[in-house]
Amino acid sequence: MKLSRFNKPEILKQIGRALLGQFFGRFEAELTAAGLALPPPELNDYDYYMQVAWLLLNPERLPDSLNEALFDIEAVSQPKAFGQLEASTRWAELQPLFAADSAREEIVLCTWLRNPKLVADIHNAVRLRRLSSFQYAATRVPGDKRPPFTVPDRATLDAMTAELDRWFAGHNRGQHAVRIAMQQIDGEFWFLIRHGDIYTRTPKVEGQQTDILHFRPERDDVGVFSHERDDLRINCRTQPEREMYIRLFGLHLRGRTDYFSWREPYTLEPLRTDGAGALDVSEISGLRGVVLRELEVCYEREQREVITRAQQGLFAFVTGEPAAPNPIPQNGQLVRAIFEILFAGCTRPRPVEIRVPNVLRVSQRCDARALQQWLIRSGFRKGAGRPPNRL
User: Fold this and answer.
1) 63 CB-side CA count, 13 A
2) Where are the extended beta strands (E) located within the chain?
3) Which residue, 72, 126, 67, 124, is CA-closest to 365?
4) Could you say which of 66, 119, 175, 362 is the most buried, measured as most Cβ atoms within 10 Å of its Cβ?
5) 140-181, pLDDT tens digit by residue?
6) What residues does each domain of the chain span?
């Protein structure tokens, strides 16, 4: 759903306005066509990098070509993929492009400006299924008894910040380090929560001298509230943090700490009951196709798990054959499935993983609204208004 480094002002500042200008200049026509524009050059550095960061926090609105380039560059900036770049036959001819103190992000961006295909090829070569994991929490309150929703104002965000400061300070994460930024994106309210982490030590080398840096890293967590579905999804590192966020958002958005108490919104049973029909996306405008790539089944009595994979999809040999047996086992608990979903406007499918009861892992450049529409219509999302003709 988002970039992990290129949407941070400090990373953008490290890259520099000149290099960023060359990069975004390649997409000027696409940005204009999408009704988007980069910050004006007369802005000071702080405002410039902040506005670019906010633009990149919402990849769903960016042109596909720009997103593909950004995700290729960010992926190859990671240590494992960067090692592949260093080992490539083109590495020697790229050396004159880099300053002596260039970080990985700058090196890969310079490489992309010279040879975008090289960066894309390396990304594809090392591309595993890098997914963003969200745990969902919904409400059991009946629709006609739910309180009205009020968009959080500055006072509410300040109160949330104060509570988070107290919680993180009590868990060795530092004091007064929390910042909350809220944006409304496609009808949902996204909360970017930046806070300190536990102190760490790492060696730093400068010439022939090695020192030890002792510092508190910064972490980013994300909470997303959908007023339409009245649910919350959280991306963070630990279970205690997740539970704390669910209580916090329940209190400040819906008036009760236990409001988001339903933690089992997902099921994979439609794969059994509907077979290949569960993958139908003909009525979802933002999707072009779905393939079931992998399924994990747990047999509790036998204390074993079975994982079935098929590159062409588990339903590939039964589609269009009414008499063909359902490849989904009729016993055991369906606990995890990985789908390859082709979104409208994308050139390649994106992996989406459901792990019951409440984990949804989505890949980069997923259309969240179209995905949720399909999950609801197919019955993978429970209690969210599945159409009667599909029951």
Assistant:
1) 16
2) 131-138, 179-185, 188-196, 200-206, 209-215, 218-226, 231-235, 287-299, 304-309, 333-343, 350-355, 359-363
3) 67
4) 119
5) 999 899 999 999 999 999 999 999 999 999 999 999 999 998
6) 9-128, 138-254, 270-390
User: Tokens 């999707």 identify what position?
Assistant: 287
Expressed in angstroms, the distance from the first to the final Cα of the chain is 31
Please tell me the distance from the alpha carbon of residue 248 to that of residue 161, in angstroms, as a whole number. 10
**In this predicted structure, what is the pLDDT of residue 129?**
38
Structure tokens at 195: 């806070």
Percent of the chain with pLDDT over 70: 93
Distance between CA atoms of 338 and 131, rounded to whole angstroms?
11
Residue 297's contacts (CB-CB under 8 Å, 6 or more residues apart) are 305, 306, 307, 308, 329, 332, 333, 334, 335
Tokens of 314: 């588990």
